[in-house]
Design goal:
The protein has helices at 12-27, 32-48, 95-109, 125-133; strands at 2-6, 52-59, 64-72, 78-85, 115-120, 137-144, 147-155. It has 157 residues and is of the alpha+beta class. Helix 1 runs antiparallel to helix 2 (32-48).
Amino acid sequence: MIVIRETTADDIENIYNHLNLNYVKKYCKNNEEEQKRNHERWYRFLLNSSNYAMFTVEDLIGTFLGNVKFQLDEELEGAEISLYLAECIRGRGYSTTIVNASIEELKFKYPKLNYIVAYILEENDKSILCFEKAGFLFKGQIDHGGIDYFLYMKELD
């Protein structure tokens, strides 16, 4: 069983250790401590920003399993979802449940939301399947931040 709750500053280290540390160790060998400080500053900004909502995914005993981030548009009518899962939960069939449960939490907090979008790399078959199973519809290919993505959208009730 999984639990989805709002992310707090206490989660920043878990997010770093599970989702960013391997990248930092591989590509930023000479400045690991600086990267950790930058990560902490970035996540504190996200947590304090009215443009973002973040949820931490855990099991019943509090083991960190992942993080879901939503970037809200200025009118609070839509949001972009980003899903990050710890290696221990990947491939176990929870991703669609996590996506839908986090959207429900977001809708509770922002009831006027009309849609959620996901930008997914073409080769990320598992994410495409996850979001399609969660009710997202393919809307086309789009350049987002200089990278080609598949755009998926879910309209909310």
